[in-house]
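*** Residues and shapes ***
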Amino acid sequence: MVVCGDDGLAHRLAAELRGVYGEQVTLVVPPAERTARPPVVGRARAASAALLDRVVNAAVGGRPAVAWPPGPAGAATGVTGAVGEQVLEAVELTEAVLDEAGVRRATALALVHDDDETNIRAALTARRLNPRLRLVLRLYNRRLGQHIEELLDQAAALAYAGEGDANMEASTTVLSDADTAAPALAATALAGTSKVVQTEGLLLRAVERPLPADSGLHTLALLSVNDPAGVAGGDQEPRLLPADEEVRGAAGRTAVVLEQVSTAGGPESAAPGRGAGVVPSLASLFSRRLRWSLAGLVGCVLALAIALWAVTRIHPVRAFYLTLLDMFAIDDPALGAGLGRQLLQLLSALVGLLLLPVLLAAVLEALGTFRTATSLRKPPRGLGGHVVLLGLGKIGTRVLTRLRELNVPVVCVESDPEARGLATARRLRVPVVLGDVTQEGVLESAKIHRAQALLAVTSADTTNLEAALYARSVRPDLRVVLRLYDDDFATAVYRTLRAAYPRALTRSRSVTHLAAPAFAGAMLGRQVLGAVSVERKVLLFAAVDVDGHPMLEGRTVNQAFRPGSWRVLALAGRTDTPADHVLAKGDRVVVAATRRGLAALR
C-alpha cells in the first residue's frame, strides 16, 4: 500500500493499515513532515503493531509488498519509519516519485493531500503507471469527485480492454473528511463505541459479554481464557468465528458478540420520519379544533338536506343542492311554500353565516402552517431521548443527515444564522436553536436534560469542550461525543472527563481518527465496511454479492457459515434474516470474515 499526504490523516491511515490490517506501507510525505509524530491508532493496536508486522513479514518471506529502490539524486529522500513502513520524503508527487514509491507494483494508492488539485494530478499519473491500481482520493468537491471517479475507472477499463483482460479489478474511490467522519460520529453517539458496522441503514455493535449470551446475537470471537493481552500462543489465543458447538461448550468464557443498535426514538420525536419534506400533510394544515368545526358544519348540511328531502319528497341530490343554495343565499325565497320548507331555508342561511368565519380561519391557519414549514422549528414540548447536535457546518450537516437516515430524533444548536446546514435542517424539519452554546440557557432550550447524547462538532475545540463541560454540569450521566482537531488534545480530554465522570460515557475523536478507517477500507476494496479488533487479531466486515458465488448461492445462512473463516450476518439492509433463508441471485449479504476468509470469498 502507498499513502501520500501532507497532514495527520496520512500518518493515521498508514498506522491503520499497519496495525489493523497488517499491510506493508510506503508513506510519501513532504520534507516539512519529517518531525511530525505519527499518531497512535488505539491502545491495543499500537501495542501489537510490531508483533503483527513481524508475523506478516515472516509470512511473505521478509519481502515488503511495495518495493522501494533508491531513486534519482535529489528526487526523494528515504527516512526510517515504523516497523512495516517505508517513509519517502518528496516535495511534489511527480512521476519519478510515484515510481520510486513502488506504484507500478502496489495494490492500492491513497492520495490524501489537503489540496484537491494535487490529488487529482497524482491520480492521473498513477493510473497511467498502473492501470490495475486501486485508487483512493481525498476530495472536498463532491461533484467533481464523481466525475473524476468515472474518468479514472473508464481509463482503467480501456487499459484492460487493450490488454485483452475482461476481469477488471481496479477501482477508484473518492472520499472526503466530512462524508467519512460523520457516520462514525453518529454511530459513536448512538452505540457508545467505535466498534460499529454500518451498511444500508443497518447499524451493528460489537460488545464483550460472558457466555451464555443472548441466543439472538452472533458470536464473533471467544477471548483468551487467562491471557487478556494475547501474548501467549496455543490454546490461549482468541478464537475468531467459532463453531456453534464450540460456543455452547464455552460457558463462562468472555465472547465478542454482535448486536443491533436500536435507533427508535421516544414517543415524542424531534423530526418526522424519513423522506419528510417542507410540504406539510393535510392533517397538519389545520388545528384539531378547526377540523372539528368543519366536521360539525358538514354534518349540519347533511342533516338539513335529509330534512328537506323528508319534508318535500324531492330527489335527495336536488335536496342537497337546494340546501347549498340556501346556505350561500343564492336561492329564491320560499314564499308560498310550506312552513317546513321555510324553516329549513332559514336554518340553512344561519349555517351559511356560521361557515364564513370557519372558512376564513382555515385559510389563515393554512397560510400560517406554510410559513412555519419554511422556517426553523422549535423543540416541541415533552421531547426526550433525542441527540443534541452542536454545529451545522460541513461535518455537522453530514452528521445530521446520517442521524435522520437512522430515524433518530435530533435537536440542532447553531450560532451562525447563515450556516450551510440550516437549509438541510429546514428541509428535514429538524428543530433548531439559534444561539451561542456557551451562553446560559441555550442548551436548556435544546432539552439537554432529557437528551440521550450530546454531539459537539463545531470547528472550535474550546467551544466543544465548554459545551461538554456545561452539559455534564446539568446532567452528569449524559453521553458526550466531541470532535477535536488535535489527537493529543482529544486523548487528554477523554482521560480527564472519564476520570471526572466515571459513570458517564465520553468519547473525544479527531476527524483524522474517524476518517482513517474509511480510507483504509476503500484501499482494501469497496466491499470492506469496517474492522473490529479482537485482542491482537482483527475481524473484517464486508458486503458480498451472492450472484454466481459458489460458496453462497443456493445455500442457507447456516450452510454458508465457515467456522474460522466467515459468517453471514444478515442480508444488506435487513436485520430479520432467518438462519434457514436460502441465499439466491440478487441478494447482497453482510459477512464477518478473517483476512484469509475474505480473500477466499473474493
Observations:
- The two ends are 18 Å apart (CA to CA).
- Residues 33-74, 227-235, 263-269, 271-279 have pLDDT under 50 and may be disordered.
- The longest helix spans residues 339-373.
